[in-house]
Design goal:
This protein has six helices and no strands. The chain is mainly α and 140 residues long. It has two domains: 92 residues, no CATH class; 39 residues.
Length: 140
């Protein structure tokens, strides 16, 4: 499958929206930390089945140490993000939690410029300002 990255980005946004809606209902029935744990197990199983079905397993010694370290750090950040997100969903309205969570887009732009050396274009800058303004407006 050689789909354009935009297809996967739109699919990610769609599934992230479902995550907020399904998560809001789920955390109303249990502790948000337990909800995050159960969600993580499901993600692990779904990903394992996908890797198995596509024959994408690799031997651990064939993996890049730098890649593994940064993926572990990414996993820690993801876990902390999910724990915070589900706690926020448990106590706040999904329609206000999700826009604040999407300020991560603005932070990604900032971090990409500062740490990855990506160029900040006027379109990305204006878009980041608009996302920030929208998130603040929706959170009030």
């Amino acid at each position: 499958m050689n789909a354009d990255w935009r297809v996967f980005a739109v699919a990610s946004a769609f599934f992230a929206a479902l995550t907020a809606i399904f998560g809001k209902v789920g955390v109303s029935e249990m502790n948000s930390d337990l909800a995050t744990f159960l969600r993580t197990i499901v993600i692990l199983l779904v990903t394992a089945v996908l890797i198995w079905a596509r024959h994408e397993w690799q031997r651990p010694d064939a993996l890049s140490p730098k890649g593994v370290i940064f993926l572990v750090l990414s996993g820690v950040a993801t876990g902390l993000s999910w724990l915070c997100y589900y706690r926020a969903l448990q106590t706040g309205p999904a329609s206000r939690v999700a826009p604040i969570d999407k300020l991560s887009v603005v932070l990604v732009v900032l971090f990409a410029v500062l740490f990855l050396g990506e160029r900040l274009t006027w379109k990305v800058g204006v878009g980041s300002i608009l996302i920030t303004a929208g998130a603040v407006l929706m959170a009030l």
